[in-house]
Specification:
Blueprint (H helix, E strand, L loop, with lengths): L2 E3 L6 E3 L1 E4 L7 E2 L2 E2 L4 H13 L4 E3 L8 H10 L7 E6 L14 H15 L4 E6 L8 H13 L3 E7 L3 H14 L4 E7 L11 H8 L2 E5 L25 H4 L2 H4 L4 H16 L6 H10 L6 E4 L4 H8 L8 H11 L16 H8 L2
Parallel strand pairs: 3-6, 3-12, 6-7, 7-8, 8-9, 9-10, 10-11, 11-12
Antiparallel strand pairs: 1-2, 4-5
């Protein structure tokens, strides 16, 4: 396993994180949770044996069961690992059972602690934006949890770059515990965060945790055959949840990318398209850890091998070029920003 520090903290985190969105049994929010407690125990043990020390979950995964399963699976090993959970999404029928109000943030964190069977959360992340609650109120709630010792670090997920920047500025203004990481969707088929989010993260020194690195399983190649003829998915995320629409995946582009992943995988002994897609992400300096989830231990083992796969510069460039996002204003002016005379003078110094 490879390790790095998360953002500007000294928190050492594995480059791969086990995601628990599949934990919990049953269906919630239109998503199937096929991993029961026994299988969760096996996968958590498998992750720890492989050197993974970070586990990501959320208070609404499986209606809270994912946190319960993770807490039981960790058992006495809890002190050796990092638990990252999220809050803010709807968890009940009451009007107050969602959002980032002081009331809901504190109550959600306390409930997560009970489900996880622990007395502290290593990384508490805002799951979704809340346009109704002022940043000051949410930031105060997070700082309150940190001051009580219930939370070690705070981060965010799925916020726009301007929202995260404003939130962080609010925390600095009041001397609150600051954001140290972002959890965002990033894959070969979803590079939108390269416009605003990744420059913001680099500027502020925040870490990046990547969710859905295989675009809902599409980049594993199991939904297209060698003739690029689409197969109807019968299991996995694409079967139970419309990830293609949610993640705005272009079918034709996706098939071309999968074909290239297969070609690159063929050049590496026993490699798979999924491993190549994960290795591409791990080669990005801005990425701290890639969250990998699975329905079965065998699938999880395949993804784990990505940490040992090193792509050549030519292979990385080929994937970058094939999936390069279309330039948008004003981001397309970024490369030509500043004065050309000054740039040449500095380069020739």
């Amino acid at each position: 396993m490879q390790y790095t520090t998360l953002g500007k903290t000294g928190l050492v985190i594995s480059r791969l994180t086990l995601g628990t969105m599949t934990f919990g049994e049953g269906v919630s929010h239109g998503f199937e949770h096929p991993v029961n407690q026994e299988r969760a125990n096996r996968m958590v043990a498998q992750a720890i044996e492989a050197g993974i020390n970070c586990f990501d979950t959320a208070n609404n995964y499986g209606e809270g069961r994912a946190e319960e399963f993770l807490g039981r699976a960790l058992g006495g090993r809890r002190g050796d690992v990092i638990i990252a959970t999220k809050l803010g999404a709807r968890t009940g029928s009451a009007l107050t059972d969602a959002g980032l109000s002081y009331r809901h943030v504190v109550a959600s964190a306390e409930a997560s602690l009970k489900r996880l069977g622990t007395d502290y959360i290593d990384l508490l992340q805002l799951h979704v934006p809340d346009p109704l609650t002022p940043f000051e109120e949410t930031a105060r709630a997070l700082d309150h949890l940190v001051q009580r010792g219930l939370v070690r670090y705070v981060g965010y997920s799925n916020l726009a770059a301007w929202q995260a920047a404003s939130f962080l500025a609010t925390q600095h203004q009041y001397g609150y515990a600051p954001l140290i990481s972002a959890q965002m969707y990033y894959s070969l088929l979803g590079r939108d965060i390269e416009y605003g989010t990744t420059p913001f993260l680099r500027h502020e020194g925040l870490g990046l945790l990547v969710w859905s690195p295989l675009a809902g399983g599409f980049l594993s190649g199991k939904y297209t055959n060698n003739q690029d003829t689409r197969e109807q998915p019968t299991d996995g995320r694409l079967a139970s949840f419309d990830y293609l629409s949610l993640l705005s995946i272009d079918h034709e582009k996706g098939d071309r990318v999968v074909a290239t992943l297969r070609e690159i995988a063929a050049a590496h002994d026993d490699a798979t398209p999924a491993q190549v897609a994960l290795a591409w992400l791990l080669a990005k300096p801005v990425v701290s850890s890639v969250i990998i989830g699975a329905n079965k231990p065998e699938q999880f083992a395949d993804n784990l091998a990505a940490v040992n796969l090193t792509l050549t510069s030519q292979e990385l460039e080929a994937l970058d070029t094939l999936t390069e996002p279309q330039p948008l204003y004003p981001y397309k002016w970024r490369a030509s920003g500043g004065d050309s005379v000054v740039r040449r003078a500095i380069q020739n110094a």
